[in-house]
Amino acid sequence: MTPTDSRRSVVPPYLLRAVAAASGFPRAAEAARTALASLALVQTPKHEHLVAPRGVSGTVDRSPQRTISDARGTTTLPGTVVRREGEADTGDVAVDEAYAGLGATHAFWLDVFGRVSIDGAGLPLDATVHYGQDYDNAYWDGSRMVFGDGDDEVFRRFTIALDVIGHELAHGVTQYTADLTYQGQSGALNESVSDVFGSLVAQYAAGQTAEQASWLIGEGLFTDAVHGVALRSMRAPGTAYDDPVLGKDPQPATMADYLETTDDQGGVHTNSGIPNHAFFLAATAIGGYAWQGAGAVWWDALTSDTVTASIDFAGFAAVTVDVAGSRFGAGSAQQSAVQDAWRTVGVLD
Questions:
Q1: Is the peptide bond before 275 cis (omega within 30 degrees of 0)?
Q2: Pairing of strands 138-140, 80-84
Q3: Which candidate in 130, 167, 171, 269 is catalytic?
Q4: 297-308 tens-digit pLDDT
Q5: What is the mean pLDDT of residues 247-254?
Q6: Is 168 noted as a catalytic residue in this protein?
Q7: Nearest 10 degrees: CA dihedral of 147, 222, 266, 322?
Q8: SS3 for 281?
């Protein structure tokens, strides 16, 4: 790990702490303690502000350019290359799921927004699987995706959920666009943007409308031993899990329950439930395919010069309302849906 590690993990520290304290899941508890220790070592990112070119040259390779490596149970990155772009399935489910997930995410950004890879300029997509022993997380480290295998008591392998892959790669997109500061409300927006586009990647791959989508993040990650369906719910924040051992999903759906805390960079994984819910409300009110409605608005906002790295919920909400008017027309049903969504969650008056 380097001093410039900008690790963005999908499993929040509060959930890992609950797993670490779970006496009924000894293997999972040990795995969670290891995952927590790795998060504690990560320093505040010091990378330069990275902004990709808005326009893409016709010479850029528009294929995904995927490389999957195998850490073989170690924490040494990148590991041994086991599959490159265009090569056949290996038979290793984690390798092949990672390869397919990177491809589906690349296809989403290219087909929907004309963006070639996460930097907009054809950045190769690298991933490492089988990271650590029973590692209970997946993360984007600023340059590659890293997947743990889970502990098989609480968590399954982290390549299993396409929205998790889409979520983590969306951290890369944010890194190359608004570069939202990973602290407080801007940090919660950073996490929410990843949930939004992670969900849209999965919806696009499945051909689902906003009404058909589950709006769950990390569905399938929990084993059958856990009373829960996912890490987070955009439809109903705070309801993704309610387990006698792990506790209850703590995400708020509105500003009335906003959590003031110094934990988790100021509650970035918790308070992200509020903008997540606003997106869900806007997307379902607009209807149809969410990437064509609310998703397009959020993309316009993320790439707007008006969105600063330290923007708060209210500032981001105002930008989404403005760009919805620009894209769909002032006073349009789409603009009203976006504004009403932010009002419902208590961000706008």
A1: no
A2: unpaired
A3: 269
A4: 999 999 999 999
A5: 97
A6: yes
A7: 90
A8: helix
269 catalytic per annotation: yes
- Whether residue 347 contacts residue 317, with contact meaning beta carbons closer than 8 Å, is answered with yes
- Active-site residue, from 153, 168, 191, 219: 168
- Measured between alpha carbons, how far is 156 from 225 in angstroms, rounded to an integer? 11
* pLDDT at residue 41, as a whole number: 55
Which H or E run includes 328? helix 313-328
Which of 176, 281, 165 has its CA nearest to residue 220?
165
Amino acid symbol at 308: T
Report whether 158 contacts 149 (CB < 8 A): yes
Distance CA 196, CA 171 (A): 11
The helix or strand, by DSSP H or E, that contains position 84, with its residue range, turns out to be strand 80-84
pLDDT at 257 over 90: yes
CB neighbourhood size of 57 (10 A): 9
pLDDT digits (tens, 9 = 90+) for 90-146: 999 999 999 999 999 999 999 999 999 999 999 999 999 999 999 999 998 888 999
Q: Render pLDDT for 43-55 as a digit per residue (tens, 0 to 9).
A: 344 334 444 443 4
- 3-state secondary structure string, 130-148? CCCCCCCCEEECCCCEEEC
